[in-house]
Amino acid sequence: MGAEGNTVEQPPQDTTSESVDALLEAARYDDIDDLMSIASVGVSLDSKDSEGRTALHMASANGHLDIVDYLISNGVDVNASNTEKNTPLHWACLNGHIEVVKRLVLAGASLSLLNSHERTPVDEAVSRGKLDVIDAINEAAAQVELTGTRVSESVNLSGDQMDTVLD
């Protein structure tokens, strides 16, 4: 009985739907303290809800840069996809969150993953006329190339694509 009494009990991994929902809600509403508290009891920061959304999806969709930075620094999957095959980058592009887009690209988010509508994150930005997002992607891709890291693809709109955006 000697050695057994000295073991430290680890908190159980809490991945109930309620705890995952609480994690995603904290990310959605920019509550870093709640997010960290929930993670501290064993909820994985990569947990997905019933629709496949992660905390990074929620923070990216809502432009919460501090949460995005925290999640990336803790090694979450930047290319996680939900049931519609959207990644956090798809959502950041759709909603025009330029700084989040840059952070995701710099962290290795793929520019070429297709969602269930056969659209890349860039396609989603173009569909909403968010040309500033395209500029942000190009800027981040150039920065990644300068640091010697590969980017999945660079983004340059052809004249036809630009005409479509401007129509």
Automatic annotation (TrEMBL):
SMART domains hit by this protein: ANK
Top-rank taxon, per record: Eukaryota
Residue spans of the ANK repeats: 51-83, 84-116
InterPro entries for the chain: Ankyrin_rpt (IPR002110), Ankyrin_rpt-contain_sf (IPR036770)
Keyword Repeat belongs to the record: yes
Keywords: ANK repeat, Repeat
SUPFAM superfamilies, sorted: Ankyrin repeat (SSF48403)
Pfam families: Ank_4
Protein's UniProt name: Uncharacterized protein
